[in-house]
UniProtKB/TrEMBL annotation:
PROSITE patterns according to UniProt: RADICAL_SAM (PS51918)
Protein name per its UniProtKB record: Anaerobic ribonucleoside-triphosphate reductase activating protein
First and last residue of the signal peptide: none
Entry superkingdom: Bacteria
Keywords, comma-separated and alphabetical: Iron, Iron-sulfur, Metal-binding, S-adenosyl-L-methionine
Organism of this sequence: Halomonas marinisediminis
Amino acid sequence: MQIPLAPAPQAPVRLPIAGFEARDDHAFPGRRAAVVYLQGCPLQCGYCETASSMGPARRAAAGEWDAIEGLLATRVGDLDGVVFSGGEPTLHPDLPAAAEACRALGLAVGLHTAGAYPERLERLLPHLDWVALDTKGRGADFDRIAGRAGIWRRHALSLALLLEAGGPFECRTTLHWRDFSLDALEQLAMTLADCGVRRYAIQLARLERCLDPAYRGAVEDAPPREALETLVRRLRPHFERVELRG
């Protein structure tokens, strides 16, 4: 006689919650999505507008994710998606379990990431419906803007994973004229197009929210808006979609 074994109890999901936005129709294209912000980021971008609320990485307290999951369950019908953002959400090893819990509720799952942890992104991809990959620059420029040496190589691995997986994603670049010239922005965009990226968004940094005080003032020799709009029009034949946001 065989005695059936009781299933092992499932470990609780632990995520350090930094914030929750009940509805953001721009965070996940085509979806009515909530946004879950997770604590911590390994990067130090001068234009960052969430660093003051994200704070340093920390261990999650018991029940933090359970409260968010319960709140999402009450809003099914009003929402059809949820986005995990940060900070850098792939810092947290329990994220795949949280993403699967959202899908069990019938919600599509999106992710905002800078691609800093490609090995974790690879494990997470089967649980995702859409990804926004924060592409800060080319090679050494990426490291300079992000304030961390060698991070561009990890980002490149993450981009390769997304291209190989074939699911919907976009690359997006936050534009601050302290970090870019118009030519450098065009070179970055064309590099992405040559890699096979089909959707690209350029989003203007909001100066008043920048982490670094040096980024909060206008850049004297910044190109005029018209020059940026002309560049966007020039890029459009190379992508399925190019957007200028902000």
